[in-house]
């Protein structure tokens, strides 16, 4: 099954953009996934192809019209989740990315101006998604981030099937630091344990560093990680030797 992405946007020329290069671009050329960029203006009915109007209640900016957006979404049919990129959405997580990558694809709706008419989310099943606590000029950049995160997890896209297993956020922790040659650079050397050949010690060092870095850099992730670890059900043998 090919992962099929449809992007609903006012700027279809922005796609595939960066997704046409490196591993995502190779996978696109190989047919491991497909991409359509659909112009929202194609669903307008007036000669000016108007997609927005002034905010109800007054205020600056313009708001994307619900009738135009709904027509664009409805034209994509059923079977794939519809996601709207908006800073008001639920934060995107690696777990959600994995769910999306395991499915048939996604319809991604890109906002502009002051955003979407709220009735769109009342009248259609649309998942509001945010890639961070900041505001972009439009949802296209966020859509590129979302799709890049999904595409790299598709079968055969990354060189090795295990490439994504130990990355940041896969286990709820940040990834451990990496090193490569030269062994010494400006007086700084690769940690001795990584040159020891002792795989058990290396694994323990990596786990310890992942925990330390997460605790120091992302206390929010660390708190969730510790909470999940404390609250998880005991596996068989976990309570052996404990009183």
Automatic annotation (TrEMBL):
<feature type="binding site">
    <location>
        <begin position="131"/>
        <end position="136"/>
    </location>
    <ligand>
        <name>S-adenosyl-L-methionine</name>
    </ligand>
</feature>
<protein>
    <recommendedName>
        <fullName>tRNA (guanine-N(1)-)-methyltransferase</fullName>
        <ecNumber>2.1.1.228</ecNumber>
    </recommendedName>
</protein>
<keyword id="KW-0949">S-adenosyl-L-methionine</keyword>
<comment type="similarity">
    <text>Belongs to the RNA methyltransferase TrmD family.</text>
</comment>
<dbReference type="Pfam" id="PF01746">
    <property type="entry name" value="tRNA_m1G_MT"/>
</dbReference>
<dbReference type="GO" id="GO:0032259">
    <property type="term" value="P:methylation"/>
</dbReference>
<comment type="subunit">
    <text>Homodimer.</text>
</comment>
<feature type="binding site">
    <location>
        <position position="111"/>
    </location>
    <ligand>
        <name>S-adenosyl-L-methionine</name>
    </ligand>
</feature>
<dbReference type="InterPro" id="IPR016009">
    <property type="entry name" value="tRNA_MeTrfase_TRMD/TRM10"/>
</dbReference>
<keyword id="KW-0819">tRNA processing</keyword>
<dbReference type="InterPro" id="IPR023148">
    <property type="entry name" value="tRNA_m1G_MeTrfase_C_sf"/>
</dbReference>
<dbReference type="InterPro" id="IPR029026">
    <property type="entry name" value="tRNA_m1G_MTases_N"/>
</dbReference>
<dbReference type="GO" id="GO:0052906">
    <property type="term" value="F:tRNA (guanine(37)-N1)-methyltransferase activity"/>
</dbReference>
<dbReference type="InterPro" id="IPR029028">
    <property type="entry name" value="Alpha/beta_knot_MTases"/>
</dbReference>
<feature type="domain" description="tRNA methyltransferase TRMD/TRM10-type">
    <location>
        <begin position="6"/>
        <end position="223"/>
    </location>
</feature>
<keyword id="KW-0489">Methyltransferase</keyword>
<keyword id="KW-0963">Cytoplasm</keyword>
<comment type="function">
    <text>Specifically methylates guanosine-37 in various tRNAs.</text>
</comment>
<keyword id="KW-0808">Transferase</keyword>
<dbReference type="InterPro" id="IPR002649">
    <property type="entry name" value="tRNA_m1G_MeTrfase_TrmD"/>
</dbReference>
């Amino acid at each position: 099954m090919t992962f099929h992405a449809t992007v609903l946007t006012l700027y279809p020329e922005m796609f595939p953009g960066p997704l046409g290069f490196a591993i995502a671009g190779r996978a696109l050329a190989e047919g491991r996934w497909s991409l359509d960029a659909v112009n929202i203006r194609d669903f307008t009915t007036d000669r000016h192809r108007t997609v927005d109007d002034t905010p109800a209640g007054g205020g600056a900016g313009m708001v994307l019209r619900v009738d135009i957006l709904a027509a664009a979404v409805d034209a994509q049919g059923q079977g794939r989740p519809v996601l709207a990129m908006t800073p008001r959405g639920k934060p995107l997580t690696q777990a959600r990315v994995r769910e999306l990558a395991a499915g048939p694809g996604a319809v991604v709706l890109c906002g502009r101006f002051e955003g979407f008419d709220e009735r769109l989310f009342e009248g259609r099943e649309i998942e509001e998604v945010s890639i961070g606590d900041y505001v972009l000029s439009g949802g296209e950049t966020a859509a590129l981030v979302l799709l890049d995160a999904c595409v790299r997890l598709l079968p055969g896209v990354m060189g090795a099937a295990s490439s994504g297993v130990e990355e940041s956020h896969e286990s709820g922790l940040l990834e451990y630091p990496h090193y490569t040659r030269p062994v010494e650079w400006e007086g700084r050397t690769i940690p001795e344990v990584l040159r020891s050949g002792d795989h058990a010690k290396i694994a323990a060092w990596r786990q310890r560093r992942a925990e330390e870095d997460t605790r120091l850099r992302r206390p929010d992730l660390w708190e969730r990680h510790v909470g999940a670890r404390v609250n998880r059900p005991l596996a068989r043998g976990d309570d052996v030797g404990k009183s």
